[in-house]
Amino acid sequence: MNVDHRPKVLVIGAGMAGSEAAFFLAQHGVQVVLVESKRIEKTPAQTTEAFGELVCTNSLKSMDANAPHGMLKYEMEALGSIILKSAKEAAVPAGDALAVDRIHFGTIMTKVLTDHPLITVQDQIAKDPLALMSELSCDYTVVATGPLPHKDLENWMQNVLAKEDLYFYDAIAPIVDGDSLDYTKLYYKDRHKPVPEEEGQVADYLNAPMNKEQYEAFIHELVQAEKVQAKEFEDWKFFEACLPIDLMAERGPETARFSCMKPIGLELPNGEIPYAAVQLRRENRLGSAFNLVGFQTRLKYPEQTRIFKMIPGLENASFFHLGSVHRNTFLNAKKILNNNQSSREFPKVFFAGQMTGVEGYTESAASGLYVGTQILALIKGREPLSYPVETCMGALVNYIMTADKAVPSNINVGLMPPVELTKEERRMRKQIKKIKKAKVAKRAREIFDQFYQEQLKEIL
User: Fold this and answer.
1) Tell me, what CATH number does 265's domain have?
2) Of the N and C termini of the chain, which has fewer Cβ atoms inside 10 Å?
3) Are residues 203 and 72 part of one domain?
4) pTM for the predicted model, two decimal places
5) Chain-centre distance of CA 206, in angstroms?
């Protein structure tokens, strides 16, 4: 590291991870050069020039303190997460989830990063991180381009770094115009929550109920529909927790009914439970657009409009944005990276976000914070930080660094060490899941707080 000037870090990519890493480092006195290419050339998934663009869903998942995503947010907020702060400013109703108005969120993120006195934003296509780091006189680099890096950068990763093909495919759900819905066939209801009684207040989710005949016809059409096919040189490698609705249908007629179309907790106004239900979540504060929850798809555009209009209430639907398939590139972290997410071959080059093997907005942002703390520790002459595996951030890193097979993962309780239950707790079979989750969450907060006081606080 150069000793005659303030440390400078190159961050490539202004998505979830890159934005978080850049802001964290700048807030702690580090000069940052934030390089973003979308104003020059967008990826197939990008539609705006805003930083922190949400290209799939508009939800950053649960805020419940005992849920895995809620636990992860607890750790991120302790580190001053700009993603969560901005998301709360741009929040739209979504039950216990943190969902945002995408445009408002992107506007906030762009302004915060552009206006920061220690962040220099540079519109440029990064092709070789090592060469660019040298060109810009930076001491460290964070590669955080998200799941779709520029082809030249991807070639660098494969030819110089990874030397093997590692990628999977993901799919985006469609967004429907709220004015085109037939609300006489739909009803507001949050899963497992009573309908709000306060005058003028409605539940956060809009539901389209299906009877058995409607559901079976819908699934049949999904199976038979024309789909975007993989090219000869490609191989479908979908993330299991974000499967296309049409792929669910192909796996079996009941698969969707036990996943995104499950009717449990979505009683109709007359008290009956539908055979299946499609949930629609507000896409913006006005409620003028809705996201079809869990309806990622490989269907060709004409097939999407034809089949999704089979959903009750969507017969005359107009779609602002149809679903699409896009390629997500990620590294086999266990083979290529150190625990602090730096390259084993190029230790001043770090990787953050989805390309490391974490999946999801919140997880990607947390990865950016994790790398930010690791670089700050190095700048301050400390050893790499070792996040306890009982914490969410520690569990995510431990997973991608130890998994037998490189498969992306969201944060979940299964990534964390099991907790011990008392005899009395084991007897409470109906509540055992809830008890376990609460104990894991309590332990995670306590251990993170201790880790913060003993290690993180020294560098912040």
Assistant:
1) 2.40.30.260
2) N
3) no
4) 0.80
5) 22
